[in-house]
Amino acid sequence: MPDAKQYRLGLNQPAGSPTARRAAEMAEAINSEAAGKFRLDVFPESRLGPDPQMFADLRAGSLEFFMAGATLGGVAPTSALPLLPFAFSESKAVFAALDGALGDRIRNELAANGLHAFRRCWQNGFHHLTTSVRPIRNADDFAGLKFRSPGGAIAADFFKALGADAGMVPFSGMYEALKAGQFDGQSDPLGVVLSLKLYEVQTYLSLTAHWWSGFTLLANAAAWGALPRAIQEVVERNAEKFALLQRADIEQINTAGADELARRGMQVNTADTVSFRSKLGEFYKDWREKAGPEVWRLLESYAGEIRG
Description:
Layout: E1 5-10, H1 18-34, E2 38-43, H2 51-60, E3 65-68, H3 91-99, H4 101-111, E4 115-117, E5 122-126, E6 128-131, E7 146-148, H5 153-161, E8 165-167, H6 174-179, E9 185-188, H7 190-195, E10 204-207, E11 212-220, H8 221-225, H9 229-263, E12 267-270, H10 273-277, H11 281-291, H12 293-303
Parallel strand pairs: 1-2, 1-3, 7-8, 7-9, 10-12
Antiparallel strand pairs: 3-11, 4-11, 5-11, 6-9, 6-10
């Protein structure tokens, strides 16, 4: 049909990753149900540019859909809080918060900035540390190291509190940056270490589960509003279905990840994270003040008391 709308979805994950595969399946289901009235095409592995560029394009309206990682703190400050170190210890508690009232607050902040956020976030998972120079066994092992980390102030403050530096390079360039020694290590879930083959350029895997991260499926609000309600319902239904499938995929991969990475040659240890937390007292105090009492109480209603 000549008036059929064609929209694009950009994301940074490798084409063979569960996230990109489920996004492609979601688009296929949407396109089938839309029966020629709407088409969504998926562009994985940063083919439409690095995350900051895709996010800027989304806000400008030149990209209609974007699978956002930890890039939203500037427009939705509450979105950073689920990344607080050791706030959560299991994915289902995070999902309860993000599918519920904490997520509602984040979605409202995004809506105020012209972004439509779909209700069900997608999973990245709990982060662990990989390094090339030495394993991270306790807090003292951070001293002087530089980690590639998701962008954002929480990550920078966390590593600084432990005596390390945090730097950023686009997700698609992480392998080469680690290979070149621009960073001593990085922070990501085990599924990412596998999908990017970081075991080829990192020696040690230290199990820390220091924070959780996920993906938020976003649409430019004007582009979303231009779709007929019947098409919106098709997109919403499939966005929820494939988000839940992807969550289960990632949970399974991350659960088995340490054993798989050991088989691929990484030296695996479990870190003493109690020693980490002993150095985070001021960090938590500062972030409690930044969040404000109302939002902090909302976070703790799902996560429990957060302190060093």
